[in-house]
Design a protein that fits this description.
The protein is α+β, with helices and mostly antiparallel strands and about 325 residues long. The longest helix has 20 residues. The radius of gyration is 19 Å and the shape is globular. Bound molecules: ligand DP6.
């Protein structure tokens, strides 16, 4: 009754910000992301009849604050397996947790893959993805590799969101350079923040209404390997999301001075020096620069020079969540 899985975070280029249904955790907007390679979460789940409640350790520390969401996600899997057995969950991230680096995406994707194997449930990726989505909307995308589309629609029987792989990463091997400008956990979680935006931002309805148009442009740009078009729509979509965040009450300000300086550097590199790069930023102060491979080194050097940048992380595009074999099962 044990399984271990690895999942990589994904970074949305067209963002999910807002929910259509909080109980089912259904996104109000579709999204398009890239799954990373060198950042990962490894999670071991062991069901044990002697446990009275689920136990969670994150990076070798008890993690009571995250337990309720993890248990709720495991409850869906327990219901499918027809068991009530509690589990011991050990999860390890090789990158900062809850700092706008999508640790909840890789975390819930790894959790459902490990738990479903431990319960011997044979579930396909789409079902695993919808179970991961209940834990965290962005996690639905980490079940898939490369370029991933999560569309949202009303299906016949109710509300649903459908994930699919748009293009394997190797077909258009862009790179991600991440400027870490703070290692602290974010002050307002994505979950709380998007609800504040839905209730209070005067721009929220427009944001939702315009999302499908951005998604269509981005999807076409990915399929055509059109970097300039993807750059334009991704930066636009990211800035629109941050405009919604900043126009919420209380205002959600996820950027710091280094975040803003990195954005200017990236725009200068592109517009002045012809470097093929663009930025995207999530609910945190880290700046993710998407680059054509040949330009990644130059972008990494430029961002490392920005005052306030603590570290540069780099990643190619990677695969979806997977079970780890016995030989790979070192959690740390
Ligand atoms: C800004 O998936 O973390 O990163 O579903 O409430 O867990 P919950 O939210 P989460 O939100 C991600 C928001 C984002 C944009 C994105 O990844 O699409």
């Amino acid at each position: 009754m044990a399984g271990t899985a690895q999942a990589q975070p994904n970074i949305a280029l067209i963002k999910y910000w807002g929910k259509r249904d909080t109980a089912l955790n259904l996104p109000a907007t579709g999204s398009l992301s890239v799954t990373l390679d060198s950042l990962w979460t490894r999670t071991r789940v062991e069901f044990d009849a002697l446990l009275k409640c689920d136990e969670l350790r994150l990076n070798d520390m008890p993690a009571p604050a995250a337990l309720a969401r993890v248990s709720a996600c495991l409850d869906s899997l327990r219901a499918l397996a027809g068991v009530e057995t509690r589990a011991r969950i050990e999860s390890y991230n090789n990158f900062p947790t809850a700092a706008g680096l999508a640790s909840s995406a890789s975390g819930f994707a790894a959790l459902v893959v490990a738990a479903s194997a431990a319960l011997d449930l044979r579930l396909n990726r789409r079902i695993l993805s919808s179970l991961a989505r209940r834990g965290s909307g962005s996690a639905a995308r980490s079940l898939f590799g490369g370029y991933v589309l999560l569309t949202t629609h009303r299906s016949g029987s109710g509300l649903d969101a459908t994930p699919r792989s748009l293009l394997p990463g190797k077909d258009w091997p862009l790179e991600m350079v991440i400027a870490v400008t703070s290692r602290s956990a974010k002050p307002v979680s994505s979950r709380a923040g998007m609800e504040i935006s839905r209730r209070t931002s005067p721009f929220y309805n427009e944001w939702v209404a315009n999302s499908d148009a951005d998604l269509a442009i981005a999807q076409a740009a990915v399929l055509a390997h059109d970097f300039a078009a993807l750059a334009a729509v991704s930066e636009h979509n990211c800035l629109k999301m941050h405009a919604v965040m900043m126009s919420s009450r209380p205002a959600l300000m996820y950027w710091n001075a280094a975040t803003l300086e990195c954005m200017h550097r990236i725009r200068d590199l592109r517009e002045r020096d012809g470097v093929r790069t663009f930025f995207t930023i999530d609910a945190g102060p880290q700046v993710k620069a998407v680059c054509v491979s040949e330009d990644a080194e130059r972008v990494a050097k430029a961002l490392a020079d920005v005052p306030g940048v603590a570290t540069i992380l780099r990643s190619r595009l990677g695969e979806g969540a997977r079970l780890l074999r016995e030989s790979e099962r070192e959690v740390a």
